[in-house]
Automatic annotation (TrEMBL):
This is Hemin ABC transporter substrate-binding protein. It comes from the Bacteria. Residues 158-185 form a coiled coil. The lineage of its organism: Bacteria, Pseudomonadati, Pseudomonadota, Alphaproteobacteria, Hyphomicrobiales. PANTHER family: HEMIN-BINDING PERIPLASMIC PROTEIN HMUT, VITAMIN B12-BINDING PROTEIN. Keywords: Coiled coil.
């Protein structure tokens, strides 16, 4: 995805990869494109929010959580929650957008998660006559609150967004505190896929890395960012206690395929043969449901040790 080496194997997973899977690549708050050749950067409010195309699953979830779904005229294919969003026209996968597809719904504004692409398509959209606001993606507690506030401001509902941010702040804080007293932290290897017998795993600056840390775990992988294939030696050296994967994601990796991998079989996680599988959008979305996802992952990791 964005800045990933070895893009080809990941593109094959495009229908199930979430916006949360690319490393954050910038700190700008928004882009607001007006007339071709006359783009204005820094504006964060749509002049007309009546017909918004939402690009990015967490963006769509936030719009619904704010009660502003009436503004939506389209979504991207990563926007699968809430169920009602599936009734909206689908303009394609957020990292493989077609400008024609997005513009075909005649939006009055485009609200896109950072990392949407390809760059050429986004550049075309930013230069069109449709206002384009880009929302930063940071895989953290504060990153979620920032997204809520930016989406709320774009739609002109700042006060409602601030109330939602306070609510989510309290939930996230409580979820993180549930593992605060746990001393023996588990080492987690997030496996995106197995390609040619090699593990494609999550390093730093990924949604998976952020979730593992928020749930009280340790990412067993260090030394690289993004999603990369690991050598057998690197997998063994990582010594994961647990393998974490997405459920309902394709192509599926069975337990037999996972644990027949010689490198995985040589780790504590391989000996346990109990992977944790959680819906990708829920686990890696970094949106309104993330506090619940943190709790569920923590319970899967530590069971009764998780505080109420």
């Amino acid at each position: 995805m964005v800045s990933f080496p070895g893009l080809a194997p990941i593109v094959r997973l495009a229908p199930i990869l979430r916006s949360a899977m690319g490393p954050a690549i910038g700190l700008s708050l928004a882009f607001f494109a007006l007339q071709p050749g006359n783009a204005t950067e820094g504006a964060t409010v749509f002049a007309d929010a009546s017909k918004i195309a939402a690009i990015g699953g967490s963006i769509t979830e936030i719009v619904y959580a704010l009660g502003e779904e009436k503004h939506l005229v389209a979504r991207d294919s990563t926007s699968r929650y809430p169920k009602a969003a599936l009734d909206l026209p689908d303009v394609g996968y957020m990292r493989q957008l077609s400008p024609e597809g997005v513009l075909s719904v005649n939006p009055t504004g485009i609200l896109a998660l950072q990392g949407s692409g390809p760059k050429e398509a986004v550049d075309v959209l930013k230069k069109a006559s449709i206002p384009f606001i880009e929302v930063p993606e940071h895989y953290s507690h504060e990153g979620i609150l920032e997204k809520v506030r930016i989406v709320g401001k774009a739609l002109g509902v700042d006060a409602r967004a601030e109330a939602l941010a306070r609510e989510l702040d309290a939930k996230l804080t409580a979820a993180e505190q549930q593992t605060a007293s746990i001393k023996a932290r588990k080492r987690i290897l997030f496996v995106l896929s197995i390609q040619g017998g090699k593990i494609l795993a999550a390093g730093s600056e990924t949604a998976a890395d952020g979730m593992v840390k928020l749930a009280g775990g340790i990412n067993a992988v260090d030394g690289f960012s993004g999603y990369k294939q690991m050598s057998d030696e690197a997998v063994i050296t990582a010594r994961p206690d647990v393998i974490l994967m997405m459920s309902n994601a394709g192509p599926p990796v069975s337990d037999d395929e996972l644990f027949s991998n010689p490198a995985v079989a040589s780790t504590p996680a391989g000996a346990a043969r109990k992977p944790i599988r959680i819906d990708g959008g829920y686990l890696l979305g970094f949106g309104p449901r993330t506090a619940d996802a943190i709790h569920d992952l923590a319970v899967a990791l530590y069971g009764a040790q998780v505080a109420d």
